[in-house]
Specification:
By secondary structure, the chain is of the alpha/beta class. It has seven helices and five strands; from the N terminus they run βββαβαβααααα. It has a five-stranded mixed beta sheet. Helix 5 packs across helix 7. The radius of gyration is 26 Å and the shape is elongated. The model has no long low-confidence stretch (mean pLDDT about 85).
């Protein structure tokens, strides 16, 4: 089995890799150019376990590991930092720390939602935005958001225009009245 501590950044990743059969430790830096990352991880003999620190730009890497069938653990940054005695951050030292936490089975893994759950959350957020927009349009149509009745701003909306254009005109009127 190969255990990899990976200090992930936007343009590169620093790796500390242990082969549990031979005991060999390899340290390298991998640039994120072209298909370098995919080719590197595809060539590794399975099973492989990778540990990374949670960061904002990690999702592409987690998706890649899932696609390649590699186990990827994401660690809690504060707990990983607490395990390091030195407070000075260095990429190689961070990769070594992640590797040692994985080997010693002290890696502070966090829970990550599945792809299905991420998609469901995005769908619900999208639905919520549409529902809020619908309520805003209904309020504008009844004159609640305009403060006047009858709503004279809507009298300028040409009824012969397509429905889509009329809706956009109503939304624009709501925005103007809210400002």
């Amino acid at each position: 089995m190969r255990i990899i501590g990976c200090d992930l950044h936007a343009r590169q990743q620093t790796l500390a890799m242990l082969d549990t059969v031979t005991g060999e430790v390899v340290k390298t830096t991998l640039q994120h150019e072209g298909n370098n990352v995919r080719e590197f991880y595809c060539k590794l003999p399975r099973p492989v376990r990778v540990g990374i620190e949670a960061a904002g730009s990690m999702q592409w890497f987690v998706n890649l590991m899932e696609e390649l069938g590699i186990e990827c653990l994401v660690g809690h940054p504060a707990e990983i930092r607490a395990a390091e005695l030195r407070k000075q951050k260095r990429d190689r030292r961070d990769a070594d720390l992640l590797l040692s936490l994985l080997v010693e089975e002290r890696f502070p893994a966090i829970w990550l939602p599945t792809k299905e759950l991420v998609d469901l959350r995005a769908l619900l957020r999208h639905r919520h935005q549409w529902a809020c927009l619908r309520v805003k349009i209904q309020k504008c149509a009844t004159g609640h958001c305009l403060g006047e009745w009858p709503p004279t701003r809507f009298l300028t909306v040409d009824a012969s225009r397509p429905t889509r254009d009329r809706v956009f005109a109503v939304v624009a009127a709501c925005r103007l009245s809210a400002e």
